[in-house]
Every structure is written in C-alpha cells, then in structure tokens.
Give the backbone structure.
Amino acid sequence: MKVILLTNVPKLGKTYEIKDVASGYARNFLIPQKKAEIATDAKIAQLEQVRAKHTAAAIAERATLASHIESLNGKTITLTEKANDLGHLFAAIHKPEIVSAIATQLGETIDSGYLMSDETIKEIGDHMIEIGEGDIKATLTLTVIKAEE
C-alpha cells in the first residue's frame, strides 16, 4: 500500500515522502496515529505543491536543529539518584529525565525523539548519550552519582 508520510517516521522515511508499506502497518499504525495517509493521485498532486512550499522552511529548520545538537557535543550533565552499595539505581533513568536534565543544566530544549538509544540507565557512572537525527549527531556524557542518604 502506498502512503504519504505526514511526519518523520524512524526507519521508514521523512515527512512528505511516498512509501510502499504493508497494508496492515498502514491501517493499524501509520494512519490512525496521523503519521501517514493513503497516496491517491489527487493527494500526490497536492503533495508536490506542499513539498515546494516546505522545502525552504525545512532547510532552515534543519540548520537550527544542527546548531542545537552540535552545541551539545562533548558537554556533560549530572544526575544524582538513589542507588545501592553495588551502584545499581533504585529507579532507572529514562529519556524524559535526560531531556529535562539537558534543559535545566545546559539550557537546550530538545525532543526525546532525538535521543538515539532506547536503553534505560540503571547504574551509577558515566554514560555516553547520542543525540541526533539522520546525519546530524552529537554525543554528550551523562554522569550519574549516588545520592547521599
């Protein structure tokens, strides 16, 4: 089934691309979540007009995104969490906590979708966090220290 992507979909494509996907994937996931619509001849013609308008805006947005992500490269953020004597955290650190720490400590607001890893952090120490989209990438260090009791 041919669909027009309405948003960037990881591992599938970018906004306004026409992709051929399994019909079940389109009907059960992409279309209900407003990430895609069925590609008809009329929609494809309309897409060409919209694509022309958004090209300039997309270039400017990508440049802004690149500057935000590159400004984070090599930086360090610190979180203090409760942990046992072996260094295992009582509560894992997830993407929202990392995004919040970046915003408060570095002053950069990013979407959690730009964090490349889906793994949670479960131990104290230094952890490398990759941020980016496509060919724009940066790495920052997350230092997790044990909270004093």
Notes: The longest strand covers residues 136-146. The mean pLDDT is 90. The domain at 70-146 is CATH 3.10.430.100 (Ribosomal Protein L9; domain 2). The chain has two domains: 2-64, 70-146.
